[in-house]
Amino acid sequence: MTRNLSLLAGVVLVGLVVGTALVSFVWTPHDPLLVDASVRLLGPTGDFVFGTDKLGRDVASQLMVGARTTLYVGVVAVGIAALVGTPLGILAGMGARWLGELIMRVNDLVLAFPALLLAIMLGAVYGASTLTAMIAIGVATVPSFARIARAGTLQVMSTEYVLAARAGGRSRWWIALRHVLPNISGLVLVQSSVSFAIAVLAEAALSFLGFGTAPPTPSWGRMLQESQELLAVDPRLALVPGAAIALAVLGFNLLGDGLRDRFDPRLEVRR
Amino acid sequence: MNSGAERLPGGRWLGDGWAPAILRRIVILLVSVFVASIVVFAFMAVLPGDPAQVALGVNATPELVERTRAEFGLDRPLITQYLDWMGGVLTGDFGTSYVTREAIGPQLVDRLGVTLWLVGAGMLVALLIAMPLGTIAAVRHRRPSGTAVSALSQVGVAIPAFLAGIILVQIFAVRLGWLPSGGWTPPVRDPVEWLRGLILPALSLGLVQGAVLTRYVRTAVLDVQREDYLRTARSKGLRPYPALVRHGLRNAAVPVLTVLGLQLATLLVGAVVIERVFVLPGLGSMLLDAVAARDLLTVQGIVLVLVVAVLFVNFCVDVLYTMLDPRLRRS
Could you list the residue ranges that cross the membrane (chain A) (predicted)? Predict the structure, then answer.
């Protein structure tokens, strides 16, 4: 697979998820929450493209609104992680040595609390919800941003233009904003895309376990969970949301890979 | 991430300077475990309302709540409670559940056994997939077969382990009836049944992790292939695979090892979901049951065990890493 192709495929798949979510705000084929016992467990028909579930709800409409939940969780979780992790990483790379060491040690400690575990802990204490899932995934993702940002910062700080800026008496703030941040933004963007994929998977797993989005709000993970008891009767109910999750994750991963090649010239030369 | 810097091909396993580096890692591990235990304890202590009330439910009389608080020592200062809990944990006593009134420790050990079998088998599946496929994808990266393996691993990464589990159950348990769809038989009771029950959960966990690992193995082998020493080996007349096995794999192992450690942590937590899919009596299902029953002391104990396990795995990776790559001893 050529690199541009993976970027293109990523853009198309992510575009599809974002487009579906946006369209769901103004139109869905049916009311995704409408329970209708007369149309329970229908296979795909002209009226119900992906059929209906055990309560007679339209699977396609739920899938569309579910895309919204997925993106919402992803945006907030990755937003938290990037906004906290990136400045911490820059600070660790630019600040005093002990400060950098301290930040990275705390970082390693946070790594010992994976998203799923954090979400279950938060759920145990405050009750599970989309909010606890987003916070848990966000906090658990902070270390990856801090690491990437620190590595990038250290690289930028060793360049001659930073040396020149320091010799010219520029303040640390000025260097951070003028040189470091613009130069590591590509890395942060790549990390965001990859983290988004991980967040989609984590949200699905949490909803599957009952620690994510609460009913009746449609969520891909919960659609999967609800399908499990009917697996022998109707595997379609599991395959449709499952494929949606896989395509979304694939899209964000491919997008991340494609962006990485754009922003990391070192890799381009080597290929 | 791999810095792409030059590597020392013939580094010694244990040379000068490894002892202080490892000692430093041990200190870091101990401090991390200590801080993590405070975090876990504090997390449960900030609970709105009190654990006894939570465990007994809203209908409990104030006298009963008070009696339960005294019985479990919840009326003592937080520091005393923490020290008491940690003191117990260090001797294997995780306390008595507020809900079931049974000792948590023995149950924890039983459940951990199931989870470790699952994680171990999952890791084995992942390695058996990733090592050959990743190497093939790297060595043939300009050919269709290499590209196909890369594309396949990309798709594999995108499939949630529990979805893989659901699909595998559908095929091998429901349709073909070859393997059980869930449940657990202890290996001492019936080894054959135990193995049959372990296959699908291990595959669900391992297939997806194998796909992730394949990509890292591919990158690591690609990096090594570009090294001068490998080019020298090839120019001496060694064919690609023997050259790689003799000169490249140990160097490729260094970055792969780090990922393997991180993955082991992912597997431990991923097991929580897989245990739910396959109804396995592991640590994960114990955790979910305890959360559902609002059994906070049990939740606290399980979370601590999982977090310490992750920290310990990372410690082992760091130590191995230090031994494999002599340059790291200096840092």
Answer: 7-27, 71-94, 106-125, 131-149, 180-202, 237-256
Q: Above pLDDT 70, what percent of chain B? A: 91
In a domain, A127, yes or no: yes
Among B residues 285-304, those touching chain A with beta carbons less than 8 Å apart = 287-288, 290-291, 294, 296, 299, 303
CATH code at A108?
Answer: 1.10.3720.10
The string of pLDDT tens digits covering residues A35-93 is 777 777 777 777 777 888 777 788 888 899 999 999 999 999 999 999 999 999 999 99
Question: Chain A neighbours among B 94-133 (CB < 8 Å)?
Answer: none
Is A257 inside any structural domain? Answer: yes
Of B28, B155, B272, the CB nearest to A250: B155
Q: Exposure pattern of B227-242 as b/e (b: 16+ CB <10 Å)?
A: bebbeebbeeebebee
pTM, 2 dp: 0.85
Structural domain includes residue A105: yes
**A45 within a domain of the structure (yes/no):** no
Q: Considering CB atoms only, which of B35, B154, B170 is closest to A231? A: B170
Q: Is there a contact between B74 and B51 (Cβ–Cβ < 8 Å)?
A: yes
B281-319: pLDDT as tens digits: 999 999 999 988 888 889 999 999 999 998 998 888 888
Look up the ipTM and state it: 0.83
Whole-angstrom Cα distance, residue B300 to residue B287? 9
Strand partners, B103: B96
How far off is chain B from A129, nearest CA to CA, in Å?
14
- Structural domain range at position A205: 51-270
| Number of inter-chain CB pairs under 8 A, A vs B | 127
State how many domains chain A has.
1
What tokens were used for B100? 């079931």
